[in-house]
Amino acid sequence: MSGIRINRFAGLLPSLLLSLFIVGLFIAGLLMTRVTQAKPLQLTEVAPDVYALIGPMEQRSAQNLANNANFGFIVTHDSVLLIDSGGTLLGAGDIESHIRTVTDKPIQLVINTGGQDHRWFGNRYFAEQGIRTLTSVKTQADQNARRNSQIESTSALTAASWAGTDPQPATAVVSETTELTIGGLQIELIPVGPAHTGGETLVWLPEHKVLFSGDLVYTGRMLGIGPQSQHRDWIAAFDTIRQLAPQVIVPGHGQPTDLSGAEKDTYDYLVFLRSEVGRLIDAGEEMSAVSRIDQSRFSYLEVYEQIHGRNAQQVFEQMEWE
Ligand SMILES: [Zn+2]
Predict the structure, then answer these.
(1) pLDDT digits (tens, 9 = 90+) for 166-181
(2) Distance, CA 287 to ligand 1 centroid (Å)?
(3) Residue 111 Cα, ligand 1 centroid: separation in angstroms?
């Protein structure tokens, strides 16, 4: 009898191992799914060796790692220049993994185009590799000012994917238009704004005529006007873009475009909204009247339904004090 028992127990061992193996496969499968879901960024070469990583136009989530925005990188003859570092630590790693599908060259510099989370929350990931982080004085001030409030909201929205994120503002700053040469490539950092936030920093490649505009330009998606936005100055900042005469603009959100595309989806909307709201204020109307503004001309833009009413309220609130 006891021999049989031993045999039965011995028979259990392989099936236990098999079960463990299956559970292991299941966990590995989950992890693989996670990795797959963590790669919604779409890689596009907008000029020779100049790449855009186009993020999804949805809210931050555990799946998109708060990389719901565009990023960019340029491969020079000896290194890589990265534009914006992602919305979480995991998001920063995801951006690097996309770069590694193109080149093994080291990243030499990270530029932050703005103070919104996805522009800089991944800085620490690169700083720990000894990579410099650079932005403008105004953008850095915005990063410092809104760090805690943005940590609160982004950590809640990204849940488990927030793990390890410790947002560090850029450590080096420029206060005016600054030319840099990196790996033989000439770039210009151009501080503008306040616009969408307290101060955006444009990255201009004069040889390629490519502009990384950060959140100064949105395409295909309705731009968001928040309490930190200054829409009158945002409109004025477009003059800087026009003077550059870019052939390609990589916007903060949406597909790469040209100047007329940027004007259609961003500039025209800002001008339209300010003139409509201005009319109501001149007529002595209350804020509630903004719901009567017919914004349907821009209803082709993604997230229109969720955002257009709030945008109008925000413009009204500010214009009352202009
Ligand atoms: Zn943004």
Answers:
(1) 999 999 999 999 999 9
(2) 26
(3) 15
Greater confidence (178 vs 232) lies with 178
Distance 139 CA to ligand 1 centre (A): 13
Distance of CA 99 to the CA centre of its chain: 16
pLDDT at 228: 87
What is the whole-number distance in angstroms between the Cα of residue 320 and the centre of ligand 1? 26
Cβ-based neighbour number of residue 321 at 10 Å: 5
Distance 9 CA to ligand 1 centre (A): 60
Q: Are 267 and 239 in contact (CB under 8 A)?
A: no
Rounded to the nearest whole angstrom, what is the distance from the C-alpha of residue 69 to the centroid of ligand 1? Answer: 6
Per the structure block, which two tokens stand in for 246? 């870019």
Ligand 1 centroid, distance to 74 Cα (angstroms)? 20
pLDDT in tens, 83-118: 999 999 999 999 999 999 999 999 999 999 999 999
Which pLDDT score, from 0 to 100, does residue 6 have? Answer: 44
Strand 185-192 with 178-182, pairing = antiparallel
Q: How far is the CA of 257 from the centre of ligand 1 (A)?
A: 17
| CATH of segment(s) 38-319 | 3.60.15.10
What's the half-sphere exposure (Cβ side, CA atoms, 13 Å) at 12? 5
